[in-house]
Write a structure and sequence with these properties.
Strand content: 5-15%
Strand order of the largest sheet: 1-2-3-4-5-6-7-8
Shape: globular
Largest sheet: 8 strands, parallel, barrel
Number of strands: 8
Number of helices: 21
Distance between the termini: 68 Å
Structural class: alpha/beta
Radius of gyration: 22 Å
Order of helices and strands: EHHEHHEHEHEHEHEHEHHHHHHHHHHHH
């Protein structure tokens, strides 16, 4: 072990940690004051953008996500900034046209992003290809991602062969993404060992603490030669978040893998976020271990959504039935990993099946499109009886789904013309038309004191 390098650590506090624990509600104003100290730690990178943060900024916080990225870039002068990109879905919940993907990646690089962690919910590499190509062309680091799950078709060879394919596509590094927190330590050791033999680029591991196994999985992966892992500062760690930075640093002190971080500095940062977290108590899901994720492979966010949906229908007593229905729906759909957007697709259909008392009596538009192949190639063949019930004799597409999409930038440019202040506004609208339009209109009204409806009539204040 003496010839192995120090473990690299990516901090997720400013993205995945608060997305997992605080419903993605942390504001930029609570990130900036601690940036200088975080920049001094020596992290491999800081995950600060992507995932649900883009949507949340516009929808709930009245913040411009592009401005958040710019401000963070200004503060972090030493550490690389990283984002989570859902392949052809970008930061949304559906596939976007290639022109939107290309412009989004270019603008993101212009705003200061260094590393794109790119994944597809189905591990369909065709859905990652465009974003990877553009990011490479723009000089960014492409971390191509293999999504981890457990099913009859997701064996070690599946993960290894997918990693090998992604390296051949130009990836600069590989991430094994355990979004549900179900990766066991011995499985982590085996997969990372095999990946290290199969590819020549660095390998990073991303786990959530939902089941309580993540730190053990990290230590096993370190023994297997993993190059980097994802952690969060202790006051924003555990539960559905990542393992705590400080604990892993302490565990590796004095070993060849020692990251060499200053625990006193980390303690200051943890104290800061401990106070910040108190501001978001109404959204805080806590840090308990959830054994349901081991039984049903359901991420914590899915269970929260179930509770919300069922409470609205006064049917919270059906929660256990919904949890048990998820694996059945997942099998019918060819065992998609439960990560955005497939987790929402499977979860919503499970709720319908339970509440209506008959499976697939009502089918969501997303499930119908999934069966048509519009989200990509399922990991395993779908249940043909269910498919015929949903789409009849229609045959699923076999091409890359985005090949069927018309360009979208020009239409978005026209729609935001009265409110546009910077080119990124076009992309915000292209991704989330209704949410972004409201944000842009309210921004104009706040800045000018003029009702945005007048702008629609051609009035522009001096």
């Amino acid at each position: 072990m003496s010839d192995r390098k120090a473990l690299k650590i990516t901090d997720t506090t400013l993205r995945d940690a608060h997305q997992s624990l605080l419903a993605t509600r942390m504001r930029t104003e609570d990130m900036l004051p601690i940036a200088e100290k975080m920049d001094e730690v020596g992290f491999h990178s800081l995950e600060v953008w992507g995932g649900a943060t883009f949507d949340s900024c516009l929808r709930y916080l009245s913040e411009d996500p592009w401005e958040r990225l710019r401000q963070l870039r200004q503060r972090f002068k030493k550490t690389k900034l990283q984002m989570l990109l859902r392949g052809q879905n970008l930061v949304g919940y559906r596939h976007y046209p290639d022109d939107v993907v290309e412009e989004f990646v270019k603008r993101t690089v212009d705003c200061g992003l260094d590393i794109f962690r790119i994944f597809d919910a189905l591990n369909d590499v065709r859905n990652m290809e465009k974003a990877m190509q553009v990011a490479k062309a723009e000089g960014a680091h492409v971390q191509a991602t293999v999504v981890y799950t457990i099913s009859p078709v997701h064996d070690v060879e599946h993960y290894v062969s997918t990693a090998r394919t992604l390296e051949e596509m130009g990836a600069d590094s590989i991430c094994l993404k355990d979004m549900a927190g179900i990766l066991a330590p011995f499985a982590a050791r085996e997969i990372i060992s095999r990946m290290k033999q199969a590819v020549s680029i660095p390998i990073q591991l991303h786990c959530h603490c939902t089941s309580g196994m993540a730190t053990m999985a990290y230590l096993a992966a370190v023994e297997a030669g993993v190059d980097a892992v994802d952690c969060a500062i202790s006051s924003m760690a555990l539960g559905t978040s990542q393992p705590p930075v400080e604990s892993l640093v302490a565990a590796l002190q004095g070993t060849p893998h020692d990251p060499g971080f200053d625990l006193d500095l980390l303690s200051e940062i943890a104290e800061y976020f401990g106070e910040v977290r108190k501001k978001y108590g109404e959204y805080d899901v806590g840090t308990r271990v959830d054994v349901n994720v081991l039984r049903y492979q359901i991420p914590g966010g899915m269970i929260s959504n179930f509770v919300s949906q069922l409470s609205a229908q006064k049917a919270l007593d059906k929660l256990q039935d919904c949890l048990e229905e998820v694996p059945r729906v997942r099998a019918d759909l060819g065992y998609p990993p439960l990560v955005t957007p497939s987790s929402q697709i499977v979860g919503s259909q499970a709720v319908f099946n339970v509440l209506l008392g008959e499976r697939y009596k009502m089918v969501t538009t997303e499930v119908r499109n999934y069966m048509k192949g519009l989200y990509g190639r399922p990991p395993a063949p779908v249940n043909e009886e269910v498919r015929r019930r949903i789409i009849g004799d229609e045959q699923p597409i076999t091409c890359r789904p985005a090949d069927l999409l018309e360009p979208g930038l020009e239409e978005a440019r026209k729609a935001v013309a009265p409110y546009m202040q910077k080119p990124e506004d076009i992309l915000s609208y292209a991704l989330f038309p209704q949410v972004a339009l409201r944000f842009l209109q309210e921004r104009m009204a706040a800045q000018t004191g003029v009702d945005y409806q007048l702008a629609e009539q051609g009035y522009y204040p001096v």
